[in-house]
Amino acid sequence: MYIENGAPISRSEPVSARIVKAAALAQCCIDQQEPPQSRAFAEASLTLMLDDPSPKVRIAMADVLSTSAHSPLHIVTALAADQPEVAGYIIARSPLLSEADLIDRVSFGAPLIQLLVAARPHVSIALAAAIAEVGTFESVAELLRNGCARIVPLSFRRIAERCGHEPHVREALLAHPQLPADCRHLLVVKVGDALKEMPLVNRLLGERRAAKLVGDAAMRASIDIAEACSQQELPAVVEHLRLRGEVTTTFIIRVVAGGRIDLFAALMASLSDLDEDRICSIISHGRPAALVALLRSAGLGDATHAALIAAIEAWRAVASGRSKFGPVEVSALMLETAGKSRQLAANDDLFALLRSIHQEFMRQTARDRLSLMSVA
Predict the structure, then answer these.
(1) Residues 329, 331, 335, 340: what is their CA dihedral angle, to the nearest 10 degrees?
(2) Is the pLDDT of residue 333 over 90?
(3) Higher confidence at residue 7 or residue 188?
(4) Using CA atoms, how far apart are residues 195 and 167, in angstroms rounded to an integer?
(5) How far is residue 106's CA from residue 110's CA, in Å, rounded to a whole number?
(6) Which of 309, 363, 362 is nearest to 334 (CA)?
């Protein structure tokens, strides 16, 4: 039996009656307008009702007590440790659960509990980090969709590394407005790896060709991501790419051919020992000898210098309004310059690369024109 203002409440009463009384007692317990004696009786009754054999009775208690900071802590804690359909109300809403308690429940709780924690109205940095580290894919996706969750770049990176291969997590990551650019790049890598491992792709294209096509697409996506990020974020993204070994000669040639000069300057700052202001000055106004020195300091082979310098000078003319070149014209100029090189044997690979880049720009330009014509 339970106590209700001194009167017994029997467990032999119908469950429906006990549910109504449990909700009423919980409401009395959190109502600060009630006399202290009434709240004390209600608290004592609710403490005994924690042992009610019907989960529906405990759900009625949890539903009310989860909404108030004045709920008895020992009852809230007991309900939070109950079976998931009871604990869910407390886990999802109660303001009395501490950050440490919630982190423990993420670490050791059932998937449903993790999901409810991720959807709470306030998710701290530490709690978000715990979900990123050990949460199920569903709870991680819910965390990313929770606009009240405080997620720092380190947690975004951990989610991308651990869960980036899961489509619904990847979709939630890409939709998040605060996703760092290096995490977007990690997702590109994850997608590329998944494509390369698909049996259908390998059967249709062959393993080597599939790897090349995916690699080229990932490189273009990496350049687009780096170009789209803010100036404050760009150095970190470039360093991320460099540490992953993706800042290759091919990568740099693609960047310059496409006119991504800000990105090119950041790459030179990462690869050479010159300061950023000096690098920008050389790229903007430097003579060919200064450009050669810059390219050498970044570790670029002599065979690439003529084509890169021709492109840099062409983009200078575009910036000053003296030319209306685009990537197609600049890549054609680079291709012509490489073909005239005296070191032609050493330039075979470079010439093939530039021809491939030029053809890509031509195809993209044709698609863009067709798209504009269809809109018109």
Answers:
(1) 70
(2) yes
(3) 188
(4) 13
(5) 8
(6) 309
Full-model pTM: 0.69
* Radius of gyration of the chain from its Cα atoms, rounded to whole angstroms: 31
Provide the CB-side half-sphere exposure for 316 (13 A, CA).
16
CA distance 96 to 67: 10
Q: What long-range pairs does 367-371 form, CB within 8 A, spacing at least 24?
A: none
The pLDDT score that the predictor gives to residue 1 is 45
| Average pLDDT for the chain | 87
Give per-residue pLDDT as tens, 128-166.
999 999 999 999 999 999 999 999 999 999 999 899 888
| CB 95 within 8 Å of CB 74 | no
- Residue in 213, 304, 203 with CA at minimum distance from that of residue 252: 304
CB-side neighbour CA atoms (13 Å) of 227: 16
Q: How far apart are CA 376 and CA 372, in angstroms?
A: 6
Q: Which residue in 182, 183, 187, 192 sits closest to 240, CA to CA?
A: 182
Distance CA 335, CA 347 (A): 11
Residue 2 main-chain phi, psi, to 5 deg: -115, 165
